[in-house]
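haha ok so turns out i had the wrong file open the whole time. this is the CORRECT one, sorry everyone. sequence first:
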Amino acid sequence: MPRTTAFVLGAILCVAGAIPLPARQAAPVSGHAGLFSEMRWRNIGPLRAGRTKALAGVPSQPFTFYMGMVNGGVWKTINAGRTWTPIFDDQPTGSIGSIAVALSDPNIIYVGSGEGLQRPDLAIGDGMYKSTDAGKTWTHLGLRDSQQIARVEVDPKNPNRLFVAVLGHP
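then structure:
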């Protein structure tokens, strides 16, 4: 394409893009009728998921996920997020920094408490927790004075071997 033709074509496209077009009018909606009339409000999960720090999925169970809020505990879904259930409410801390699911046994879940984000209003935790029954019950493992656990990784072959990034006192 000759240079002059390309220039003229580009100029035409620029001018055409600058021409205002009339706005499309939406169909009038009265009351609850309209495009979303069949939709109804329903609560499907945690009330305060705005500061979510931790998330873990289960590769062998594609609809199962665990979510940990910085000050809202651990929640579990088994239907890809349609509904969420709190599974950590009976523990003394609600500040979650990391969640890890053992690849070799999806019933084993580790939670590192203490949000692990450096900010002026952070929430601290009290160490590491483990569940061997997919979150029904929890055992405190230790690191009680760690306050902030930013990351937990589980050895893919040995579910009892952990790597824990402890930030400590803020």
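The helical segments are 3-18.
again sry for the mixup
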